[in-house]
From TrEMBL:
This is 7tm 1 domain containing protein. Residues 1-177 form the G-protein coupled receptors family 1 profile domain. It is found in: Cell membrane. PROSITE patterns: G_PROTEIN_RECEP_F1_2. InterPro entries: GPCR_Rhodpsn, GPCR_Rhodpsn_7TM, TAAR. GO terms for cellular component: plasma membrane. The keyword Transmembrane helix applies. The chain crosses the membrane at residues 9-28, 40-61, 82-104, 124-148.
Length: 177
């Protein structure tokens, strides 16, 4: 299942790379920024690709969490249907959040094609920033839980393994999770 998440993240990152020439064209041709569709598309694509990437990172963190915290139940929880539902769910969340500027924008003739002028501040601060902040907090908490579980597992292994007293114990591999 993890390969599906990594492939989905790779596709999202590939879309970011494809977007860069489109964004650079705005600096080469000023008339391109004067059309409503191309101006709005300038912000829809990066919002989609960034949101999609963050959703994929959250699904990867969730997959790792289940694999480490519930290793014996991983195959029961993370089926192909669940994996595809997570991938599709992240895609739909990114699509919904990124296409909102099509219907909710401050466009009028002569407006500069800049994010702070085109997008309502409520959309930018309360939807995008709160979503990115929420994703960071969730990922931090998930990885702290994963680290704590790996640390406890290493301690249990150390306690049950009988080594001679003069052999140093190297736990570096258990902390590479």
């Amino acid at each position: 299942m993890a390969n599906q998440f990594i492939n989905s993240l790779a596709i999202s990152d590939f879309l970011v790379g494809l977007y860069i020439p489109y964004h650079m064209y705005f600096y080469m041709d000023k008339s391109f920024a004067e059309m409503q569709f191309t101006c709005i598309l300038r912000f829809i694509v990066p919002i989609f690709t960034c949101t999609h990437s963050i959703c994929k990172l959250l699904t990867i963190a969730t997959d790792r969490y289940i694999a480490i915290v519930y290793p014996l139940h991983y195959n029961r929880y993370m089926t192909k249907k669940v994996a595809w539902a997570l991938i599709l769910g992240g895609f739909l969340i990114a699509l919904i959040l990124s296409t909102m500027p099509i219907y909710w924008n401050n466009w009028y003739g002569g407006i500069p094609c800049e994010m702070e002028a085109l997008l309502p501040s409520i959309y930018f601060y309360f939807m995008l920033m709160s979503m990115f902040g929420f994703a960071c907090i969730v990922m931090f908490l998930v990885y702290v839980k994963i680290w704590m579980e790996a640390y406890r597992h290493a301690r249990r292994i150390r306690r049950t393994t009988r080594l001679p007293q003069n052999v140093p114990i190297n736990d570096n591999r258990s902390l590479q999770t």
